[in-house]
Amino acid sequence: MITIEQIRPELTWRLRQQVLYPNSRLYEMEMEEDNHGYHFGAFRDNNLAGVVSLFRDGTGFQFRKFAVAAEMQNTGIGKAMLNYIIDFAIAEGAKRIWCNARVTAIGFYLRYGFVQTGKLFSKNGFDYEVMEKAI
Length: 135
Hints:
By secondary structure, the chain is α+β, with helices and mostly antiparallel strands. Helix content is 21%, strand content 42%. It has a domain at 2-95: Gcn5-related N-acetyltransferase (GNAT) (Aminopeptidase).
C-alpha cells in the first residue's frame, strides 16, 4: 500500500540526489525556494519511495524534483503521487499544473493528460520541455 503525506523539504534531498543527480553531493539538493513550497513523500511499507515538491505560480502550481526510487519505479508510485498533487492543486484553487519535464519522462506525463508546450531548454546536461495540464 502506498501512502502520501506532506514532509519537510530536507527529507526530499536524498531521493532527489539518488534518482535525479547521482553525481552531485547531498548538500547540493537544497533549493532556496524549498522554504516556499509544499513537499510530499510517498511511502511503501514505511520506506520513502518517492518525493515531489510543489510551488504556487500565480493561478497554478509548478512541481519540481519528482523522483521515485529506482527499485520502486513502474509500481504505480509515480502515478499516485501525480494524482495526489493534482488533487492538492485543485483543492488550492489552481487552474493549471506544470513542470519542466526531462525529455526522457515526456511519455509518462502524456499518459496523464499533460501536453507538450514546445518550450525546450537544456540545463546542467539535461534536456527539458515544459509540460502542462489544465485542471
